[in-house]
Amino acid sequence: MNNHHSAAVLFSINMQAIARFYEQILGMRLHRAEQDHVVLEIDGFRLTVHKIPDVYAEGICISVPPKIREDSAIKLSLPVANIASARQTASQLGGCVYQADREWEHEGTLFCDGWDPDGNVFQLFERGDR
Predict the structure, then answer these.
(1) pLDDT per position as a tens digit, 51-86
(2) I need a labelling partner for 70 at 20 to 30 A (CA). Which of 12, 45, 115, 116 fits?
(3) Phi, psi of 55, deg, nearest 5
(4) How many Å apart are CA 5 and CA 107, to the nearest integer?
(5) Does residue 61 form part of some domain?
């Protein structure tokens, strides 16, 4: 029986780096690692980072820093214990959580956007007594 309630899949030419990024900023645990994908889990959510097959990856180049994919139709919104800590970890791993002046609060939850080492935009949220 599966114990996850929701899931997402990210495709990347940098599978290991992207998996490590989300594992560390979200505090996820490694569920399974295969040659072509890594499965991470936290609190009923499963994130699979899947390697883009070589035949499709040939023309893909991720710059450093990456081109931010702000025009994507989907943005993951993910919980963290502390946005400030996630900001520090993200910068150490080649990504970014925007500075505190770009945070906003709604219904007692603090939000902030950022991007991963591939340039995928995501949103973090921190629940608390704010």
Answers:
(1) 998 888 888 888 888 899 888 889 999 999 999 999
(2) 45
(3) -60, -30
(4) 23
(5) no
| Cβ atoms of 62 and 23 closer than 8 Å | no
pLDDT digits (tens, 9 = 90+) for 5-49: 799 999 999 999 999 999 999 999 999 999 999 999 998 899 999
Quote the distance between the C-alpha of residue 6 and its chain's center.
15
Query: Domain containing 38 — which CATH number?
Result: 3.10.180.10
Is 73 within the bounds of a domain?
yes
Q: Is 25 exposed, middle or buried (0-12, 13-18, 19+ CB in 10 A)?
A: buried
Strands 37-42 and 45-51: antiparallel
Is 29 part of any domain?
A: yes
Say how far residue 79 (Cα) sits from the centre of its chain. 10
Is there a domain that residue 44 lies in? yes
Q: How many domains does the chain have?
A: 1
- Say if CB 21 and CB 117 are below 8 A apart: yes
Full residue range of the structural domain in which residue 48 is found = 6-52+67-127
Q: Which two tokens stand for residue 50?
A: 């899947």
